[in-house]
UniProtKB/TrEMBL annotation:
<comment type="function">
    <text>Required for dimerization of active 70S ribosomes into 100S ribosomes in stationary phase; 100S ribosomes are translationally inactive and sometimes present during exponential growth.</text>
</comment>
<feature type="coiled-coil region">
    <location>
        <begin position="73"/>
        <end position="100"/>
    </location>
</feature>
<dbReference type="InterPro" id="IPR003489">
    <property type="entry name" value="RHF/RaiA"/>
</dbReference>
<dbReference type="InterPro" id="IPR032528">
    <property type="entry name" value="Ribosom_S30AE_C"/>
</dbReference>
<dbReference type="Pfam" id="PF16321">
    <property type="entry name" value="Ribosom_S30AE_C"/>
</dbReference>
<keyword id="KW-0689">Ribosomal protein</keyword>
<dbReference type="InterPro" id="IPR036567">
    <property type="entry name" value="RHF-like"/>
</dbReference>
<dbReference type="GO" id="GO:0022627">
    <property type="term" value="C:cytosolic small ribosomal subunit"/>
</dbReference>
<dbReference type="Pfam" id="PF02482">
    <property type="entry name" value="Ribosomal_S30AE"/>
</dbReference>
<keyword id="KW-0963">Cytoplasm</keyword>
<dbReference type="InterPro" id="IPR050574">
    <property type="entry name" value="HPF/YfiA_ribosome-assoc"/>
</dbReference>
<keyword id="KW-0810">Translation regulation</keyword>
<keyword id="KW-0175">Coiled coil</keyword>
<comment type="subunit">
    <text>Interacts with 100S ribosomes.</text>
</comment>
<dbReference type="InterPro" id="IPR034694">
    <property type="entry name" value="HPF_long/plastid"/>
</dbReference>
<dbReference type="GO" id="GO:0045900">
    <property type="term" value="P:negative regulation of translational elongation"/>
</dbReference>
<protein>
    <recommendedName>
        <fullName>Ribosome hibernation promoting factor</fullName>
    </recommendedName>
</protein>
Length: 190
């Protein structure tokens, strides 16, 4: 597995890097078959250290976790615990997903935009109805079943997941509702 371990305005020493590799390696070996790469980023937020980890699995699924603590090793340990909990919760489904799927998840390219928020505090009219684009990026849309999409959204801790439905090849959305349930938008069946 490839590791990319970095720090945002923090020096990451060899001891911390080897600790990251051993912690993440043990978790992925135990719960996930054939992880491809891990990206771990350390940063400082006030007096706390923040550790954010993303692990990509060979099936195309991704798991993400974060931890924060006053100590950098404790932040990593908290992040690793959260990742282990996610993977443990979905271990059976990950194994079943791997057996059913002969090919890795197919990814389609798409454009992703970041739009400027309107910080209008008074009742004035906006100058234009066109939003201002702050950034444009490339993103990937996975081709999944609805169950796999819900699992991917849960593992990644994301509030929304856009995916191509393997059943009808249409673009679908699953999202976490305010009542705690999962919503599914399927434009092709409407």
């Amino acid at each position: 597995m490839r590791y990319q371990i970095s720090g945002k305005q923090i020096d990451i020493g060899e001891a911390l890097q080897s600790h990251v590799k051993s912690e993440i390696g043990v978790i992925t070996d135990k719960y996930a078959e054939r992880p491809t790469d891990a990206n771990v980023v350390f940063s400082k937020d006030g007096h706390e250290f923040v550790c954010e980890a993303t692990v990509h699995l060979s099936t195309g699924l991704t798991t993400q976790a974060h931890g924060r603590s006053a100590e950098i090793y404790a932040a990593l340990d908290q992040c690793a615990e959260r990742m282990e909990k996610q993977l443990r919760r979905y271990k059976r489904r990950l194994k079943d997903h791997h057996k059913e799927r002969a090919q890795p998840v197919e990814l389609s390219g798409a454009a992703s935009y970041i739009l400027a928020s309107s910080e209008e505090t008074d009742d004035s009219e906006p100058e234009s109805l066109q939003p201002m684009i702050v950034a444009e990026m490339e993103t990937k849309i996975p081709s999944l079943s609805v169950g796999e999409a819900v699992m991917q959204m849960e593992i990644a801790g994301a509030p929304v997941l856009v995916f191509r439905n393997e059943g009808n090849k249409g673009v679908n959305v699953v999202y976490r509702r305010d009542d705690g349930n999962i919503g599914w938008i399927d434009p092709s069946s409407g």
